Amino acid sequence: MLEADTLWKMGITGKNIKVAIFDTGLAASHSHFKNIKERINWTNENTQEDGLGHGTFVAGVIASSSNDCLGFAPDAELYIFRVFTNTQVSYTSWFLDAFNHAIFREVTVLNLSIGGPDFMDQPFVDKVWEVTANGIIMVSAIGNDGPLYGTLNNPADQMDVIGVGGINWDDQLARFSSRGMTTWELPHGYGRVKPDLVTYGSGVRGSALQNGCRPLSGTSVASPVVAGAVALLASAFVQTNESRLIKKKITPASMKQALLSSARRLPGIGMFEQGAGKLDLLRAFRFLESYTPVVTLYP
């Protein structure tokens, strides 16, 4: 998908990149994953296992090593943060604790295939700013409340987060994909452009709960496509030195600029529906190869 195999042939596979997945958990024994570094349950349930399959699927899109549904960055190091119960309950306090641990672990990429309409949850919003200020690239689903405008979710609507919308295999905007503009600024002015970009989110294959593969649709599917692509790109420009990652060109700002500057505009779709356009992995790679900090105006 998205010509990731071109980078794999160059030896770029996500190695040495820490990816945090905030979701419903993942079984340590799942055969698709070879590099699970840590699993932590932040909920009030006494289990680290995924009882719903959502977290397993998301992890698979990012880093599955199964040839039947290979993830974008199969050699990435996975940090599994279980922040949702099997009844899909979550609390801000669980996220705050998990965010703090992600900062402590110095993860490179953090995927949130979740979200909600409440951008007034100030402790959560502030913590997201803190996470990205610590150099963590946060990717989040824009939401599945389309086709109405202004239906996007938090934290995908925050400026420092890469908000991802969904398209189908015909490069048409998925009806379920939430639309911008952001509603923070209303009624005092126009909202900002969101999503930041779009990618495939309909009928994507990923890891099933009990091994095997299955298809799934939603922006919660599109988000790990981008997160996996980011992990893959990051691994091309990161080297190890005494077990610490040295980030040469990979920051939340540079990665977002690379993705948006290299995205391909889809015809007949507005900026509050597609943002900068469709993810183009190879163009983003070439952008980062010659990257120098520069001011850009978007959109």
Q: Number of DSSP helices?
A: 8
In the CATH hierarchy, what is the superfamily? Peptidase S8/S53 domain
CATH architecture: 3-Layer(aba) Sandwich
Unreliable spans: none
Oligomer: single chain
Structural class: alpha/beta
CATH topology type: Rossmann fold
* Fraction of helical residues: 25-40%
Q: What distance separates the N and C termini?
A: 26 Å
Write the H/E string, N to C: HEEHEHEHEEEEEHEEHHH
Strand portion: 15-25%
Overall pLDDT: 93
Global morphology: globular
Which CATH first-tier class would you pick? Alpha Beta
Description of the molecule:
- By secondary structure, the protein is an alpha/beta fold.
- It has a single domain, classed as Peptidase S8/S53 domain (Rossmann fold, 3-Layer(aba) Sandwich).
- Helices cover 28% and strands 18% of the residues.
- The chain has eight helices and eleven strands.
- The strands form three sheets. Strands 2-3-1-4-5-6-7 form a seven-stranded parallel sheet, with helices on both faces.
- α2 runs parallel beside α5.
- The protein is globular, with a radius of gyration of 17 Å.
- It starts with a helix and ends in a 10-residue tail after the last helix.
Notable traits:
globular; Rossmann fold; two-stranded antiparallel sheet; 299 residues; single chain; seven-stranded parallel sheet; 18% strand
